[in-house]
Amino acid sequence: MSTYRLKNLLSPRSVALVGASARPASVGRAVLENIRKAEFKGKFGLVNPRHAEIGGIAAVKSLDKLDFVPELVVVTAPVQEVPGIIDQAGRLGSAGALIVSAGLGEGPGSLQEAAIAAARKYGMRLIGPNCLGIMMPGVSLNASFAAHMPGAGNLALVSQSGAIAAGMVDWAAQRGVGFSGIVSIGDQIDVDIADLLDYFAMDHKTRAILLYIEAIKDARKFMSAARAAARVKPVVVVKSGRMAQGAKAAATHTGALAGADAVYDAAFRRAGVLRVSDLRELFDCAETLGRVESPAGKRLAILTNGGGIGVLAIDRLVELGGIPASISADAGKKLDEVLPATWSGANPVDIVGDADASRYAAALDVLLADPDNDAILVLNVQTAIASAADIATTVTERVGKYREQQRRWAKPVLAAWVGADQEIIASLSSAGIPNYPTEDDAVRGFMYLVGHREVVEELSQVPPAMPDTFVPDAKAARQIVAAAIADGRKWLEPVEIKDLLEAYDIAMVPTYAATDVEQAVAYANEIFAQGSTVVLKIMSRDIVHKSDVGGVVLNLTTPDAVRAAASDILARARKLRPEARIEGVIVQAMVVKAKARELILGLADDPTFGTVVVFGRGGTAVEIINDKALALPPLDLQLARDLIDRTRVSRLLKAYRDVPAVKQDAVAMVLVKLAQMAADIPEIREFDINPLLADETGVTAVDARVAVGPPQRKFAGSGPANFAVRAYPSQWERRLKLKDDWRILVRPLRPEDEPTIHEFLRHVTPHDLRLRFFAPMKEFTHEFIARLTQLDYARAMAFIAFDQATGEMVGVVRLHSDSIYESGEYAILLRSDLKGRGLGWALMQLIIDYARSEGLKVISGDVLKENTVMLEMCRQLGFEVKPDPSEPDICDVRLKL
């Protein structure tokens, strides 16, 4: 249900606590005391049927005895009373409840199920149960049993662990870090991580969102929310269970390589979420992201009074991928003028151990003005010569003055005072300077800022267009898989695999299935005639890894050798695996490419995120080498390249010594094709190509295994049910015939359409742009267009129209759903010189059809009153048109579906 009614729960005007106890050590009493201490400004009522007052606060026996209807009901009552409390609150009109109580159970007939049913009956939202509570400093609400109330700030924390949330509060109190909100979500029977990501992403008081995650329940919902949030502000996650093994035993190498935590890593990367490994790193992220904006680059200048610590900082910076800033010639001259001759003369700027506050100030002023750095780290090692506290005070004054002068575009300044006392920490923190106990923590803090900027850039990159030559024969591929499933088989036969790969234009060595020795010889003779040698492999659906039973013999050159090898393979397999069904032998051409790289590519099935694409170093020792990377499909060429670049074997794909580079994008295209195959055929459970030989001529699959079975629907909504990220909906491509035989191609918008959109906008008049965007539009930046083109098809759709004769874009219509996926807001724009030819009508009908197919109940829009053509078209399409009561120049249009 996303953000529906969340504002009522997280910023309520009235609160009731049900279940507060008179016992001093009880959870209910702790929550009551915290609400009182925080001095909640709205109406507050206490409900307890057994006490007339608790801690000096009057109580009533039931919610209906209050003289107001609470927006938020906080429940700490015994679990057997919870469903009844929720039902009563819903009847009264409460927006939601925070269930702190634990032990509601799960499954049919449980108290949890009863509470959910009661809430749904009235449209209530539920946080919890089994949680620490919520802390919202902005409205002075501490409905939790945490030991401290955090101060107001700009960080949001969402935690599946109450203990972690409480620990963050304690840490923040020591460091002077404030929060816009802290929500402990407990068992997530309604409000979940994705809902809160959506809420805090749109909260103007929140600069960054911190997550503590143990497991994701709805992967598609989480991916949509995380991708949307990460575009507008940093999202940082720490996930427990990093060392846990995969959820099931895997039959293929790709399945074995796709461990559970590696898939979470891939999901976070795809969403644009910054992952950290532990609480210390999460604290560092909070320290950094809560105080400063991301820098323009990753060049860090380091100012220090200790050369050793400065060098350590540089080492860590380089190790983490940062760049030690150079000192510009002009800045170098100025530093020479204000520093002793013994200063280091380079970065780190070591101003010597006797540096006092004035020397720090002089050097810092020069570095702040130097264009050759993007941020500054100030280090101080305390000495008996100069006061560390005075230096900290001077640095905060200089940074404050600099920020006033620069206003919005100030460089980040970070600090590490080794062994600093609380007074110095408080001084730096109060000035908004991120500060850390060591140089290592500080450099990590800087790299978190860099990481967020790079994530935003990656999310807005324009992917390369797919080659028009790739048109898979999905129908033929589906028939191959369907036939195997109908036959009761879990694995495709080698010849079927070859045909499957050919349907997606993936080359495989000539492959034949021989049921006996003499048939193997006959197929081998065909291969000999083509000038190749032969490899034989055991053919058995029960023996997945053939080499384990000596079931592979290479480089056979004569019919007699083939006959002998086939006999040996069959005899050895029957001896070592007497229970296995032996169908015969596979006969393949022996591909000898001395300079080819052996790779593994494949698909694996994850119980949380569905289909995963795996790439890495191939060969028989693939799992021992364990050089692999994972990605969530669908993939475009840019995502496939990134997947490859995250492995060590990617370096071998480049040219070295006398070995030519692998053909450009040949491997990436196979990854894209595999991802498309997974979208087209969800019956593919696991897929292994190992090895895939890659060289300057291209790629060839030598061996492959494909596990199939009836599709296991994982995610709600249309599109591939096995994808956590909703794939490009190609089924919505249309060819339309309009007035005067005008033929139009309409298809869903793709990220690589950005250049096309820029060109299209050149053909739209300023007047029409104002009617669409409600304001004069002089410039369309890359960032602006990227937001329009890089759709999350689970939440939005846009159809782009092309003139089939010229290939030019002529119009676009888009729809974005609300948070509960009941209604969608539309917008439409046509080329100004092509209006009046029926295109607008056709696009509106298409988006209405799409909305119906998605189960939306209403389409709405805002239209300027002067846009009479659009208003008339809306009336003809059945929209209700009404003036906007708050905007006299705008009409609200609404169509019930």
Quick description:
The chain has 897 residues and is of the alpha/beta class. An 8-stranded mixed β-sheet has the order 31-32-33-34-35-36-38-37, sandwiched between helices.
- Decide which structural class fits the backbone: alpha/beta
The poorly predicted ranges are: 245-249
Mean pLDDT: 90
Radius of gyration: 32 Å
What's the shape?
A: globular
Number of helices: 28
Keywords: ATP-binding, Ligase, Nucleotide-binding, Tricarboxylic acid cycle
Protein name: GCN5-related N-acetyltransferase
Family: In the N-terminal section; belongs to the acetate CoA ligase alpha subunit family.
GO molecular function: acetate-CoA ligase (ADP-forming) activity; acyltransferase activity, transferring groups other than amino-acyl groups; ATP binding
Walk me through what this model shows:
The longest helix has 21 residues, at 439-459. Helices cover 36% and strands 23% of the residues. Helix 7 (219-232) packs across helix 9, helix 7 (219-232) packs across helix 16 (439-459) and helix 14 (388-406) packs parallel to helix 15. The radius of gyration is 32 Å and the shape is globular. It contains 28 helices and 38 strands. The chain is an alpha/beta fold. An 8-stranded mixed beta sheet has the order 31-32-33-34-35-36-38-37, with helices on both faces. Strands 3-4-2-1-5-6-7 form a 7-stranded mixed beta sheet, with helices on both faces. Strands 9-8-11-10-12-13-14 form a 7-stranded mixed beta sheet, with helices on both faces. The relative contact order is 0.06. This is GCN5-related N-acetyltransferase. It comes from Bradyrhizobium cosmicum. In the N-terminal section; belongs to the acetate CoA ligase alpha subunit family. Keywords: ATP-binding, Ligase, Nucleotide-binding, Tricarboxylic acid cycle. Residues 744-897 form the N-acetyltransferase domain.
